[in-house]
Model the fold of this input.
Amino acid sequence: MSLDKHLEGFEPTLQDKRKKLAKEKSYAILNHIKDTRKLFDSFPIKENLFGSTAPSVFVGRSNYPNVSTGILAPLNPESDASNFATSSDWYHKNLQIEDILQYRIGLLNSNRSMPVNVYDVWDGFVGVQREVAISAKPVDIELSLANKPKLDFSPNNITAAIGFQADVISARIVDNPKVLKPVEATLSDDDLDARGAISFLYKKGLDVYDIHRIFSVGAMGLRDQRRLVPTRWSITAVDDMVGKSLHKQVCTFSNIDGVTVWRNSYIGNTYWVFLIPGTWEFELIEIKSPGSVWNPSLSNQIWISSEHEGYDGRASYAKETAGAYYAARLGVLEHLISIKKQCKCLVIREVSDAYWAPVGVWQIRESVRNAFREEPYHFDNFHTALNQISISLSLPLDTLKSKSTILTGIQSKIADFSPHS
Done:
């Protein structure tokens, strides 16, 4: 059974990457897609009007600076819209890949192409979209659709998949959005740049999921710089800007004592987080096994990538690990803020073939965040820690060392690797 025979618009070039989805694990999803399509038989459209509750928005990146901008709402108006919004709740509910894809396939993205400059735009479709984004809870909306929704199932490594899409003629909100006071403050302050607004909202208790959404619709920042930001870019940008703000604080703290290692596993991903005495450094190493979604090779070759930053942080984009780097770094920095310490940190992410469909970098962020809720391993020195943990890794220790900046640096200190350490 080949999945691309069942999904409209599913690109044949993704066939290898989705091979797990097209084998035994695909049947539950295919059945769910069939059930979702049956919703069209009783689709609540009267004179092209669809009523639902919108938990979120989506901004595409094709054809920038004219982008596809949309409102996300469950196809079934009776569904609890809050369940469909990407958030930390998905991790705490222990949602599996099948569950996540079912939520995303059950969403309608009603969209239209719009220019990204939106500072004074609070009417029409974009105005409704922006109000949905700044609301603290899902809002009831009515949409006039130009065509029957079609499936556009295109997940990637940053954002979760979106299911059905339709062109929209018009939209209106039928209840009152609830806007938090900190959001109102950043909305009205067009002398505060986006970095300052993001830091302000985070300090006021908004999680990055809320800030991603608000940032993506241009509801913060300097007057002449407020514009729609593609969702994929906004997720990484917010993780990066919040991380840089936390990094400044962490570098003022004293060093940790001893080497501590945490382990956490979720939906086919295993994370090892090493905290090592010393001034701030961070590195993410990703090990992707054959058969996993980002290493569909039929050979037994393991794919490995890494990115690193020193005490002063990063000045360039982490190309090898992309958004995963900033999501993992944020989880580590939040922990260090909570214990008021700084250190060197190595995060090793192992992706197994059980990770058969991408769900977005939120699972990396939450897996690292929640690794620190697990019972840690304590070691007298890094040499002992690495040798013991390496037994559980899927590649030789020498290969890991050859790819790692932190390991190379620590290995160069003879005392750390002395037999008498």
Summary: Residues 1-23, 414-421 have pLDDT under 50 and may be disordered.
